What we know:
alpha+beta; 3 helices; 9 strands; about 40% strand; elongated
Amino acid sequence: xxxxxxxxxxxxxxxxxxxxxxxxxxxxxxxxxxxxxxxxxxxxxxxxxxxxxxxxxxxxxxxxxxxxxxxxxxxxxxxxxxxxxxxxxxxxxxxxxxxxxxxxxxxxxxxxxxxxxxxxxxxxxxxxxxxxxxxxxxxxx
Length: 141
């Protein structure tokens, strides 16, 4: 019914620049354990979080980061409503808790806030919030 992938270009750029900086530092200063640890942590982030794919089928909404190892599934019959929101810049990117519930985001400030029938909320970042809101609204009818 709906599928869209948002690529986090700024996130990819920042992580790549950080990796290159640490690699340069390791070449100059030697492979210190702390630098090696940070390098591999950033490499894992770059592998797991370069994009966010949203899929809606007949029964569920899935938000998948990167290759899909990290994902969140919502059963459509448990969703009460949704609406487009704008996140403040300090909410950042990734997966984390906000005053409005969990946020799943790789780029930008726009998101669709989902309200579940149990009153829990979460936000899914997207670069096409109107389309996502419309797709969710149609799917939960």
